[in-house]
Every structure is written in structure tokens, then in C-alpha cells.
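Sample 3 of the quickstart, ligand iron/sulfur cluster:
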Amino acid sequence: MTAKKAEAAGKAAPAKRAASARKAAPVKKAAPVKKTAAKSPAGESRTALVRRARRINRELAEVYPYAHPELDFDDPFQLLVATVLSAQTTDLRVNQTTPALFAEYPTPEDLAVADPEKVEEILRPCGFFRAKTRSVIGLSKALAEDFGGEVPGRLEDLVKLPGVGRKTAFVVLGNAFGRPGITVDTHFQRLVRRWKWTGETDPDKIEAAVGALFPKSDWTDLSHHVIWHGRRICHARRPACGACPIAPLCPAYGEGETDPEKARKLLKYEKGGLPGQRLKPPRAYLDAGGRPAPPLGSG
Ligand code: SF4
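Result:
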């Protein structure tokens, strides 16, 4: 996307296109303007990029104040296994699968000695079930043999476990140990590229580039905000631009449906008036009515 298109996007996305955009404070007209001082993929200065990126995160924090991991888990082991299983499938599918797995194999020691064929049968709905079975049994063996049956709380230990990369490790560190981390999944990659936060394509480089735009303390919540936005509004094939609350800040406005009514029909999960992905969200994530998230329009 060129700076010119980005600038045009800023003008072409008046706040009236989305109800929640009306609530947003006035936004500086078109961020990417200084072509001669271009330092970001959008052609804006570094300072302008940092300001715009943080503004997007603040806006998303208002849209998704309840954003949290969408995998059901009771402890770090369950989160680790569920995250490994979530590759190439939805969190909902994993949440429908893991109760049977953890009922049969509640600890790393149990799963370490499991019959692979039985585990494969349980994991079949998650896809790639043979590889995922090898990973979860392998990482359980490593936990049992090398870490006393506990999930380690250090990145360098986690990434040595079978099937565990930096993305999985940061999910676990951020959500089970409270240590800041950026989760570069498919949604994160797509959205930060649309927003011109970085031109990198390698996940590790994206992580470093985006991490440099934010204080470390923001990293985990930022990851949730971006991923939730990707799942609900800024879809891969048809982003709902006409119902997007950060449209005035987005250089890619117009890549998707811009008609507000048609765009609203593209919204997913609670933004589309439907349930979320968690089957047993913790009490902290429920509203007064016991629902997983506020209804459409209240965020
Ligand atoms: S939905 Fe459209 S306007 Fe919103 S972030 Fe995605 S591409 Fe940008």
C-alpha cells in the first residue's frame, strides 16, 4: 500500500461510517504524509508511526476491553497443550477437544506415557492430529523428565519443547506467567501489515519491529487486541471496513466492505451478536449476566 493510498484512506473513512468511530476522539488527518522523511512502510515518520500504532491499540482496548486468551485452560500445562493444538484450527475447536484429553491425561506424566493411537483419536477433530499427538506427548515427556512435571516460565526453556515455537511460548508466558510477550499469529501478521506497522514478513522480525513501537508492559494486551480484531472485524478475505472503529487510522481502509450495513453483517462472535470461542471462560471475563463478553455495541 502506498503512502498516497494510505492518505486517501484516512480521508475516505469518515467517523460516521461506523457507530463506534463516532465515539473516537478526533483523529489527525491522514498519518502518512512526509514522503521525504519516509521511515515506515506507510511513509510516515517514526514518531508518527509510533503515535498511530499506540492510538490504534488504545482504540482497540476500548472496543475489546474484555480481550483475553480464547483457549480454555486451568493451568500452564493445559494452556501449553491447547496452544500447540490451536495451530491451523480455531480456538473453539480446541476448546471442544481438550476436555476429553485432560480428563484422560490430566498431568504431563500421564500424557507422556499415553498410547499415541488413543491420543490421536481424541485429537482428530483438531486436524494434523498425528503431528499434534507427537508434539503433545513429546512435550509432556520433556516436562516430566527435565522440568519435574512443571511448565517452565522461561522463553529459552519453552522453545526447546517439541512443537513449541516463540508464538506458543509467548502465549504461555503472557497468559500463564504474566510475562509480556507478543503473539505473532496469522491474524497479527495480517493486521500489522495492513496497518503498515512493519514491512517485515518473518514472524520473529515482525515481533521485534512491533515490539519496538510499544512499551513491553503493553505487549500481551496488544496481542489480544490485534488478534480479537482480526477474528471479529478485520478478516483475511473480507474485512468489515464499514463497521471498523479504527478505520480513520487504517491505511488499508477500503480493502474490505465499506458499506456500513453490509459490513455489520460480516462481524463475528460477540460483535456479530453470537457466542465467543471459550466454552468455560473464567469468572473474570464474564459480565454481570454471565456472558463471555459485552453484547454488540457496548464495547
Ligand atoms: S477492517 Fe478495514 S479499516 Fe478496519 S483495520 Fe481492517 S482493513 Fe483497516
